[in-house]
Write a structure and sequence with these properties.
Blueprint: H1 11-24, H2 29-36, H3 41-49, H4 53-65, H5 79-82
Helix pairs in contact: 1-2, 2-3
């Protein structure tokens, strides 16, 4: 070890070397807890999720995968794009076109 320049590995470090890949491989936390001799799942979870944020991400993704999604709506064009173009009055007729039924003056007719 001295020649490699690496820090020494303690016996306790091998526990982490066992638990980390198991949890990253989606092993049941109860199995890892029992293997390590922790008194509760909470201790195992607190120990490993604090320095393995990808465990939290993986858990969130697996949970969201089972949540039903609402069907995707078709994109509708903006209201302005859906409006019918207003008919133009003939030049010199003096008449205004009828109001667009979908417009703000819905149902109104020009006065005679």
């Amino acid at each position: 070890m001295e020649l490699s320049g690496l820090p020494p590995i303690r016996l306790h470090d091998t526990r982490h070397l066992s638990a980390t890949p198991a949890l990253l491989g989606k092993a049941d936390i109860k199995v890892v807890q029992e293997r390590l001799g922790h008194s509760s799942r909470q201790i195992t979870s607190d120990t490993y999720t604090s320095f393995l944020p990808q465990l939290m991400t993986a858990e969130a993704e697996s949970t969201s995968a089972v949540v039903p999604r609402s069907p995707q709506k078709k994109e509708t064009p903006p209201r302005e794009a859906r409006r019918k173009p207003e008919p133009e009055a003939e030049e010199g007729s003096g008449e205004r076109p009828e109001a667009d039924e979908d417009g703000p003056n819905e149902g109104l007719r020009p006065a005679a």
